[in-house]
Specification:
Layout (H helix, E strand, L loop, with lengths): L1 H18 L2 H25 L6 H26 L5 H15 L8 H15 L9 H12 L2 H22 L4 E7 L5 E20 L23 E16 L4 H28 L3 H26 L11 E6 L4 H5 L6 E5 L2 E2 L3 H9 L4 E7 L5 E7 L10 E3 L7 E3 L6 H5 L5 E3 L19
Antiparallel strand pairs: 1-2, 2-3, 4-5, 4-9, 5-6, 5-7, 7-8, 10-11
Helix pairs in contact: 2-3, 3-7, 4-5, 5-7, 5-9, 7-8, 7-9, 8-9
Length: 439
């Protein structure tokens, strides 16, 4: 009972710590900017937004809160040692890495870099710099890298779960340039979640001790009591797919993340037993994560695009939430064959066919199994001119997203760079409006 009361009071104190943590607010603002830019891209390509950036930010906030609670409970049994200087060190490293690539804003990358630096510093035990450099060295040496790598592994387990539960809700449709210059439909699947972590850390002079002994920590380190340290972290993923539905891509990526997390967790546990394995675990945290990214891109390059129009009909890229198309049961990846009895091959033909009867429409749609399904609905004033069904690009479409890594400067500047295939640009120069998209 005393332990429960102590945890409650420490939890309340940690909650107040979270409210004054600037890094938590920075992560939420970063996510809001990311979704706002995504909405601007959708308006540029389709003249309509698929999802609002406000509701997307709110979803990730709630998802991160639930995931942070779950990870905190798991880490209560694994344990870690962390100081405020260590928290600052982790976040400074993350922000520096983000300047190179947005996707480098990953807890595993930050800890991997700090683990490598700590390992190198262990070769120079007599080097004692002064000033800021000395404080940085002390903060890095104080980090319990094996336990933090274990935390990174648990965070990726949480990321895998969030990806299955929420990943497809944050997928944004795009027009992309295919291998032969032909435009194809695709999805940019990018999301981040801000997780407030409440980590149990050993503290000398505590009034009570834990009824269990966490795995990480030197012998007797938990006998002096415990405290709670707040660590806000940001987890997320970035995928691009033109060869499968977002739900399929999310399921595959989630399984790979579980494998990555399992390997990293095992290596971090072994590193606690034998310190030289720490550098192996740190390198694996970075190299294996990069390997997953590379393999996903390679896999996409070897597969045929799904979101292109077949010989008959129009392939549906996405369906707007709350639209007539969603009410009728049209799904992404299906094919609209006929509208009001007329075979359609282009968006203009679909628009003309729907206007044949401005008050009512009948559709024949080919589902994922190749079977025809028939649907009908009344048309009301204000309905989307394509009933809310965004279809794959026509041959005469000319705007597409350019595949290029997204930088923090492009994000802050809300720079939308779109390839305009109708413009004859001089060789070696970028299009006047070209999109920056990280894969």
């Amino acid at each position: 009972m005393e332990t429960a009361k102590e945890l409650l009071w420490l939890g309340l104190d940690a909650g107040l710590q979270l409210l004054i943590q600037p890094f938590y607010y920075i992560s939420i603002v970063f996510i809001a900017l990311l979704y706002r830019r995504q909405v601007m891209m959708e308006r540029k390509l389709f003249h309509v937004r698929v999802n609002g950036w406000g509701i997307q930010t709110w979803r990730t906030f709630l998802g991160g809160l639930v995931a942070g609670t779950a990870v905190s409970i798991v880490m209560a049994f694994l344990g870690t040692t962390l100081t405020l200087a260590g928290v600052i060190c982790i976040w400074v490293t993350a922000l520096v890495l983000m300047l190179f690539r947005i996707r480098f804003l990953c807890f595993a990358y930050s800890i991997a870099v700090l683990g490598i630096v700590q390992f190198v510093l262990s070769w120079f035990p007599h080097w004692q710099p002064e000033g800021v450099l000395g404080s940085a060295q002390a903060a890095i040496n104080s980090l319990d890298i094996p336990s933090l790598l274990a935390l990174a592994a648990v965070l990726h387990f949480a990321e895998a779960a969030l990806l299955v539960l929420q990943g497809t809700k944050f997928s944004s449709p795009l027009f992309l340039e295919g291998k032969r210059g032909k435009l194809v439909g695709g999805y940019n699947m990018r999301s981040f979640w801000p997780l407030p972590l409440f980590l149990l850390i050993p503290a000398s002079g505590g009034s009570i001790t834990l009824p269990w002994t966490p795995f990480f920590g030197a012998e007797g380190v938990w006998s002096g009591g415990f405290s709670i340290m707040v660590l806000p972290v940001l987890i997320g993923f970035g995928e691009m797919t033109h060869s499968m539905l977002p739900k399929q891509k999310a399921a595959i990526t989630s399984k790979r993340l579980v494998i990555y997390s399992s390997v990293l967790l095992i290596l971090s546990l072994l590193a606690e037993w034998w310190f030289p394995l720490m550098i192996v675990a740190a390198l694996a945290a970075w190299i294996l994560h990069e390997g997953l990214t590379w393999y996903s891109q390679y896999e996409e390059s070897q597969r045929s695009p799904v979101f292109v129009h077949p010989p008959k009909g129009l392939r549906v890229l996405t369906v707007l939430p709350g639209s007539p198309a969603e009410e009728m049961g049209i799904l992404a990846g299906e094919t609209i064959l006929k509208a009001n009895g007329t075979m359609v091959h282009t968006k203009d033909q679909l628009h003309v066919a729907l206007r044949q009867n401005p008050a009512f429409c009948k559709l024949e749609v080919l589902n994922h199994q190749g079977e025809s399904k028939f649907m009908q609905r009344a048309i009301y004033a204000g309905d989307h001119h394509q009933l809310g069904a965004i279809v794959a690009p026509d041959p005469d479409d000319h705007l597409a997203a350019k595949r290029k890594p997204l930088t923090v400067f492009a994000l802050l500047g809300m720079k939308l760079n779109i390839i305009n295939k109708m413009k004859d640009e001089p060789a070696g120069t970028a299009p006047s409006n070209s999109e920056t998209l990280e894969i």
